[in-house]
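User: structure tokens for this one?
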Amino acid sequence: MQKQNAQLKKEILQLGQALKKNQENSRLNVEYVQNLTKKIDTQTKLVSNLGKEKRFIEDEIYLTQLEINKLSRELQVLKEDYKKVLVRAYQNRSVDNKLLFILSSKSLSEAYRRVEYLEKYADYQIAKAEEIVGKTTDIRAKQAAKEKAKQDKEKVLTQQQLFSQSLEKERLEKEKAVAEFKKNESVIAADINAKQNQQRQIDAQIKAIIEEEIRQAKIRAEKDKKAWDIARNANTIPAYNEYLKENPKGDYASSARRNIAAIEADAKAWNVARSTHSKAAYQSYLKSYPKGSFASTAKTEVAKFEQLEREAEAERQRLIAQRKAEEEARLKAQKEEDQRKIAEARADAEAKAKAEAAAKVITKVPEKEKVVVKDEPKPAESFNDTPEVGGLSGDFLANKGRLPWPVAKGKVVSHYGTSSHPILKNIDIQNSGVDISTGKGSSARAVFEGTVSFVMPIQGGNKSVLVSHGTYYTVYTNLSTVNVSKGDRVGRGQLIGLIDTAPTGETIMNFQVWSGTTKQNPALWIAGM
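Assistant:
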């Protein structure tokens, strides 16, 4: 309770400082009345809490007194018991009595027990005395706690009275401020109508600017797509470079750069394979670039190497067959020659007359087999079609609900959509964004990186700044001075301009978020709004 009350007092002090600043400027200050209402609510809660704290202290005092009464009764009993102990001790104070008490024992064990009894009785006397001292100390501590609780109660009671008096004073101050608003209700209503008319004009301007930007973006996108189709169909480095020259930030710029890198890597790999000029080199190229620009040529070269390998293998097989045939012919001839000689010898033995009848054998050598190698059909050349990557505004959308506030310090005093006036409830306010109240001299900050689409002058000499984030836009209205110009690139957190401070002392900026030509609730985009 005390920690909670300390926090409430801190909040009241901060609100008091804010009210002092508001009051110095004008009573017709919405933030002043809002702060006053918040301070009254906080102070009411504090007064209630102080009342609870006072009751807690009273309960503590009551319970402490009960404890003191209990301890006092116990102390009285202890004193009575100790008094009896002292009387007995006095009556048996003689050493002879104690000695006779021990010596009159019937046995040694009984004498020993009587000695132990006398020692324990002496310890008992000391313990009773110490217990009395302890109870007395406890009573004094409880009495001190009771006195402190009484003092705390007086402090709380004083604070409660002071804050109650201040609360009554601030309630009267709020009534006066509200009365001042009601007194000027017609003027305030007219001022609100004028501001809303001005806001509608600004909204119409913003919508027209965004529509024109969308139209121009569509023309650029069509032109960009046409240039990309030409480059992609050509699929050459010069064609892609020509596209990048005309569209350095086009929707397909990243694809063009990626395709250039792919073509260069393809050519480099082909040069390595070509310079090596081996079947393995061409196969390695095809493995890395199966649909590369030189894939068909690489396949042709691989086919040539395979044809040469087949021809070499056929020649080797032919030579083996030829050598085998020659060897068979030689063996056959040798065998026939041996048979002839045997026949001649036999014929000579039988009859020399039959020598002329010896038959002659003609050996024919088989013709060499012809090897016919058929050319395999060459594969048709094919080209890789690179994927398209369109331009997206996903970065801004991806940060929905996590964008930073457009001011360093501030709070929302008027929310998106239709709402009642915070004080004059019969007046409705239509807001295209949110009104953020901040300190005098504060600047507007870009909530996300983007491009300044327009700097619009508004009635009264102030300005609005429209920042494009792809298909999303943010608007910063009521700037007295602007630090940016149309076409400037801005980063997240970059200062856009100084927020104007009105004669009433209010420094309020209207902040809007648009998706195309559709207004958005900024509270859904800004973190913690």
